[in-house]
Specification:
single chain; 515 residues; alpha/beta; Arc Repressor Mutant, subunit A; Aspartate Aminotransferase, domain 1; Aspartate Aminotransferase, domain 2; 7-stranded mixed beta sheet
């Protein structure tokens, strides 16, 4: 059989592949196939083998039934049966008027049903597992993982939370365990509204901020709509809007060029703008007050709503951040999103958003279909922590600890690694992250592969871009590095860089030998 993708026979172009080449690509001898019994099953097996071996890739359009029948000297009915067999196995999917496409790789032989080929096209857009794998890596006890954005859980207020739980269960009784309003418990909404200067009717409680992004995407974005996002920006926002079918255009947040933003709005006519303007993930950048005013003026001029992701606002290391975009917005075009996961613990899965009442009504209706209510107990718990002052006391301790960790981790990295090899772009004044740049000869994905055996994990830069970028950037969550572990982290990261450079050197030598 000729090599993968070879095209040795002449033929017309179909779906990027010459028609007559299909016999070579599928490795089929018409005479041998004609003697098989039943023929359609042998043909289906040959196509499956080509898919498994990589000769026919996912997304490839298979030749029309009539054409393949002519090439093989078979009846069209036999080819139709073979395609139906492949569809039954979940490997291909037929579309009326468009043809038959490879939709999945084969499932393991032990799989009782071919689910892969049944997955909807929208779900396939979210099939990447890189971030999910990094979260799994973070759970490894021997690993110094800085991949997941988590506050210093060592200072979690265990005693205060225990007391608040007792009070909540005594105070609210059966209401803890029964159904609750989709918009959230009144007591928590009142606390949030008072704390952030909105009204309870403009507040929607969420099972984490990510749910808010998903709801906004489903509520406002139609397939093909343009969404402007931070570049680089939060991967969860990239995924949420991409899964809604949006076309993503990045705005360089660190440069903060409002002429660039104006031009993007003029050219792309976006459905909305997503931004994380305070202690931004991943860069730590904060939008100045003057820029915020101009930003809102541009958005208002084009009548584009703004999603303000404010999940890091209260995690300042020195001075507090500027006022929220929502508080500066006279036109009610800002949807403000926040979470308790970055201050208390991500396992609580509690967030909220605030916006004009009409959009709150739409978002509540969407939320109700999949999540009729956010867990009552955690809402009552957090409401008690806010009411008693325990939440603010914890915040004060957390800021002190994060400042210690930021300083210790930055110093350890700078001692262990030369700045021309790995450089912190800035020491942030809040948030959880260092944004780092690598030397031009090292890519962050290669570095991660070398780092995992050294017991270190981080997020490579490409995860923060909707376009191909970030190859020489990476994000480190300094809040997960205890001061006592900072030197070890710096040394392990330095060793990982040496390993990565060694692997790259060997690869370059091998490539040179083959040229």
């Amino acid at each position: 059989m000729p090599g993968k993708g070879s095209m040795t026979r002449p033929g017309r172009e179909v779906g990027g592949t010459e028609e007559a080449c299909w016999l070579d690509i599928l490795g089929i001898e018409p005479a041998a196939l004609a003697s098989a019994r039943p023929v359609y099953r042998a043909l289906a097996q040959a196509i499956e083998t080509a898919i498994t071996g990589g000769a026919v890739r996912q997304g490839t359009r298979l030749p029309p039934e009539r054409l393949l029948a002519e090439l093989l000297g078979l009846s069209r009915t036999t080819v139709v049966q073979a395609y139906r067999e492949l569809e039954r196995r979940g490997l291909v999917r037929g579309h009326v008027g468009r043809g038959t496409y490879v939709s999945a790789m084969p499932d393991p032989e032990s799989a009782p049903f071919a689910w892969r080929g049944k997955v909807a096209a929208t779900a396939l857009r979210s099939h990447g597992t890189s971030l999910r794998d990094l979260m799994g890596d973070a759970a490894e006890p021997h690993r110094l993982s800085t991949a997941v954005g988590t506050p210093a859980l060592d200072v979690f207020p265990v005693e205060a939370v225990s007391e608040a739980l007792d009070r909540a269960m005594r105070r609210y009784g059966a209401a803890v365990w029964t159904h609750g309003p989709t918009q959230g418990q009144d007591v928590l909404r009142a606390h949030l509204a008072a704390r952030y200067g909105t009204a309870p009717s403009q507040t929607l409680v969420l099972s984490g901020a990510q749910q808010g992004l998903d709801l906004v995407a489903r509520c406002l974005v139609d397939p093909g709509d343009v969404v402007i996002i931070d570049r680089p920006g939060y991967p969860g926002a990239i995924h949420a809007f991409r899964e809604a079918g949006a076309r993503l255009h990045g705005w360089d947040v660190v440069r903060g060029d409002l002429d660039e933003l104006d031009d993007l709005l003029l050219r792309s006519r976006p459905k909305l703008i997503y931004t994380n303007p305070t202690f931004q993930n991943p860069t730590g950048w904060t939008m100045p007050v003057r820029t915020r005013r101009a930003f809102l003026a541009v958005a208002s001029r084009y009548r584009v709503p703004v999603v303000e992701d404010d999940t890091y606002r209260e995690l300042y290391l020195g001075a507090a951040g500027p006022p929220t975009l929502q508080s500066m917005d006279p036109h009610a075009c800002v949807i403000h999103l926040n979470s308790f996961g970055k201050v208390l613990a991500p396992g609580l899965r509690l967030g909220w958003l605030s916006a004009a009442e009409p959009i709150i009504d739409h978002l509540s209706a969407l939320k109700q279909r999949a999540d009729p209510q956010t867990q009552n107990l955690v809402q009552f718990l957090v409401a008690d922590l806010l009411d008693s002052g325990a939440y603010d006391a914890h915040l004060g301790r957390l800021r002190v600890e994060h400042r210690r960790r930021s300083q210790a981790a930055a110093a350890a990295i700078q001692r262990a690694i030369r700045p021309e090899v790995l450089r912190l772009t800035a020491i942030p004044s809040g948030g959880l992250y260092f944004w780092c740049r690598l030397a031009a000869d090292i890519e962050s994905r290669d570095l991660l592969r070398s780092a995992l055996p050294h017991g270190v994990a981080f997020v490579p830069g490409h995860a923060f871009y909707a376009d191909p970028a970030g190859a020489h950037e990476l994000r480190i969550c300094f809040a997960t590095i205890r001061p006592s572990d900072a030197e070890s982290f710096g040394q392990r990261l330095a060793a990982s860089l040496e390993s990565a450079r060694g692997i790259l050197s060997v690869r370059d030598t091998l490539n040179a030998d083959h040229r």
